[in-house]
């Protein structure tokens, strides 16, 4: 399986996927930490996270796959939502909680 096929399989196999630096328990950048916080406050539980720092090939190829240059990258139902700024905007408007509630069991 190529790295691009693996990325697609992760996105297809999970309702919510966050490609981030570090882990939810130990984020390795402020943007990833804020995104995890927004997801948590929005009620997201049991979503898939992938630490791109542990997988250099994935980290190098995900921006090409998604056409999004930075991390974190949040996907919901196979669709790229965006990075930290967009996730925070959606959280502040209440939209993130609605999106999460539609796809995840709390």
From TrEMBL:
One Pfam family from the record: Glutaredoxin
Organism this protein belongs to: Luteimonas deserti
Gene Ontology MF, one: 2 iron, 2 sulfur cluster binding
Residues that hold [2Fe-2S] cluster according to the record: 29
Residue ranges constituting the Glutaredoxin domain according to the UniProt record: 16-81
Source species, domain of life: Bacteria
Family named by the database record: Belongs to the glutaredoxin family. Monothiol subfamily.
Protein name, as recorded: Glutaredoxin
Binding positions for glutathione per the UniProt entry: 21, 59, 71, 84-85
Gene3D superfamilies registered for this protein in UniProt: Glutaredoxin (3.40.30.10)
Keyword terms, alphabetized: 2Fe-2S, Iron, Iron-sulfur, Metal-binding, Redox-active center
SUPFAM superfamilies assigned to the protein according to its UniProt record, in alphabetical order: Thioredoxin-like
InterPro entries, alphabetized: Glutaredoxin (IPR002109), GRX_PICOT-like (IPR033658), Monothiol_GRX (IPR014434), Monothiol_GRX-rel (IPR004480), Thioredoxin-like_sf (IPR036249)
């Amino acid at each position: 399986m190529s790295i691009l096929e693996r990325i697609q399989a992760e996105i297809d196999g999970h309702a919510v996927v966050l490609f981030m630096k570090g882990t939810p328990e130990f984020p390795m950048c402020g943007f990833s930490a804020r995104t995890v916080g927004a997801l948590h406050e929005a009620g997201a539980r049991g979503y898939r996270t992938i630490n791109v720092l542990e997988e250099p090939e994935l980290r190098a190829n995900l921006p090409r796959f998604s056409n999004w240059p930075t991390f974190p990258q949040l996907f919901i139902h196979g669709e790229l939502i965006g990075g930290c700024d967009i996730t925070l905007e959606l959280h502040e408007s209440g939209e993130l909680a609605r999106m999460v509630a539609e796809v995840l069991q709390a």
